[in-house]
Amino acid sequence: MNFLAHIYLSGGNELLTIGNFVADGVRGNKYTSYPIEIQAGIQLHQEIDTFTDAHPLFRRCTKRLHKGYGHYSGVIVDIFFDHFLAKNWNVYSDIPLKDYINDFYASLNNHLEILPPRFKNLTPIMIEGNWLLSYAELDGIQLVLNGMNTRTKGLSKMNEATKELKLHYNAFEKDFSQFFEELKTFSTKKRLEIEKKFDL
Hints:
With 200 residues, the chain is mostly helical.
């Protein structure tokens, strides 16, 4: 899953949510240098990714892209799924998406000093471009994919993937809706286990 989904699935603990958000920027055993709540969020992030990558619905979505994008297909589907979460936000939360995202941005700014270096650099750029809110629109997804393609020096061709998104839009959205219900159930159970483990 991509940024918005990881944030949403974190529950109400502020630092756990930040840990879930920054987990990809923490390598090896370096997670142990972070506060306990951040460590819990990193562990939850890993559990969510493992569940997602192995799920038949997620894998079905990646197969629609595999011919054109190979091993980048999973990354693209992560981004597509954040689009459907943002687009259908009122199904999943009573808090307006704009307010939810602004609260998260404020939380990041309040804890900027403890973020991994990659995310210290990324956060101001993300906030200025309002990436999380932009996911709700296809133009926003196009910008994300353009950026990812640039990072792969054009090798991934990810900037072209909105063609497949539009072509199979209803199928992707249906698979997301079913998958996300299962992911919510799984991640809530795992989060409670992790919170108990870390005595949060």
